[in-house]
Specification:
The chain has 15 helices and 15 strands. The longest helix is centred in the middle third of the chain and has 31 residues. Strand 13, helix 15 and strand 14 form a beta-alpha-beta unit. With 441 residues, it is α/β, with parallel strands linked by helices. Helix 5 packs parallel to helix 6, helix 8 packs across helix 11 and helix 12 crosses helix 13. The structure holds nicotinamide-adenine-dinucleotide.
Length: 441
Amino acid sequence: MTGSLDGLRDRLTRRTATVGVIGLGYVGLPQALAFAEAGYQVLGFDIDPAKPEALNAGRSYLLDIPSARVAALVSTGRLAATADFHRLGECDALIVCVPTPLSEHGEPDLSAVSGTSSTLAEYLRPGQLVVLVSTTYPGTTEELVRPILEAGGLVVGRDVALGYSPEREDPGNSRYGFGNTPKLVSGCTDICRELTVLLYEPVVGKVVPVSSTRVAEASKLLENIYRAVNIALVNELKICFDRMGIDVWEVIGAAATKPFGFTPFYPGPGLGGHCIPIDPFYLTWKAREFDLHTRFIELAGEINTAMPEYVVSRLRDALDLRGTTLHGARVLVLGVAYKRDTGDIRESPALRVLSILGRRGAVVSYHDPHVPKLGRSRHYDFDLESVPLTPEVLRGTDAVLIVTDHTSVDYPAVVQHAALVVDSRNATRDISEGREKIVKA
Ligand SMILES: NC(=O)c1ccc[n+]([C@@H]2O[C@H](COP(=O)([O-])OP(=O)(O)OC[C@H]3O[C@@H](n4cnc5c(N)ncnc54)[C@H](O)[C@@H]3O)[C@@H](O)[C@H]2O)c1
């Protein structure tokens, strides 16, 4: 039976393998494009039919990816997408990039991973490789995915291969993308790891094989926990230094001149995105099985979660000093994406800020060049449209609250026309005119 995995090895080596990518979002779509550009036949799968429909029509739905790139691959026939999972059997390798959010109670929600695994199990045939990419707790590949795939009688390492290879996608980063970021790869058995290496080697700058899927899963969590904890540290120092009359950003800039032993992290209005606010708690949950508490993670979560409230309290204090109140104040939130130069609002702290402001009676509006509308989402029910950032609009507000520092925004003009600018990102650092109107938060 290893013959079929040998056949797969051969197809991967000769690049004649058909690669399936399940979940065509921020992580899955760049992978699908990279494999198609490297000459593989790629078939993308998504339960949201709008995504295959857009891709097959040559349209991109991600800010970072131009439609022309998609269209070029679709026209050569190397890239196609579908919501029809009966076609899973056409693929030699299947890469799983589905979401791994937290439940309402802050616990891992692996329903997309287990659901996809069950669907895969229905169509799995000897000689296929499945690689889980979604971020998750150590043990998921072996304890959750493997038993589901093996339930029909196929054996991992003998009939089919199973690997885990986390993603390091950094949306908006023009220097590092899928093609030049080293990729951790692992497998449930030696042949599983070998085949996962063979799959990724041609499309990424460097593959880094590790000894087990648990190590690869844990490494991805370490990378994100490291960020969450260090961001919490500077957020706490921001509050502390501010009380002492010291500018935390200047302190970080000064400390960062040390050429060794220091990596700068920057404070902000709170964490956002699908990774940093969520992934650390996958480990917290798993650690409980071992009677352990992940205290650093919990503390970092506590500090980072409190930041939107802190930012609003800075705004309220600044309005107080100007003899006005937050209740009834016209506040324009500048930037609602969780990250500079992206349109991604998942877990964005701006949503919490807007919600807190609304509850406190402020009259809110927002501007974001990448987010034209804010509607209903899992936790919020907004009905807002981005307003243009004109001098009239700025003059018509009591305060502008900078939550996301998009590079296309004209910050000198914002400071010139607004009555008060509360800046949670240090976006106004280089502005000298009108500094008395700026409050760092
Ligand atoms: N976004 C990032 O920067 C990033 C970076 C590294 C790792 N990750 C991890 O990668 C995984 C995917 O994240 P993402 O940001 O691409 O999410 P996303 O929401 O952008 O995309 C996920 C896609 O999967 C689809 N989907 C959901 N359930 C499905 C199912 N059962 N079958 C098929 N498709 C399904 C959704 O419709 C969506 O198109 C997560 O585990 C995330 O933690 C994300």
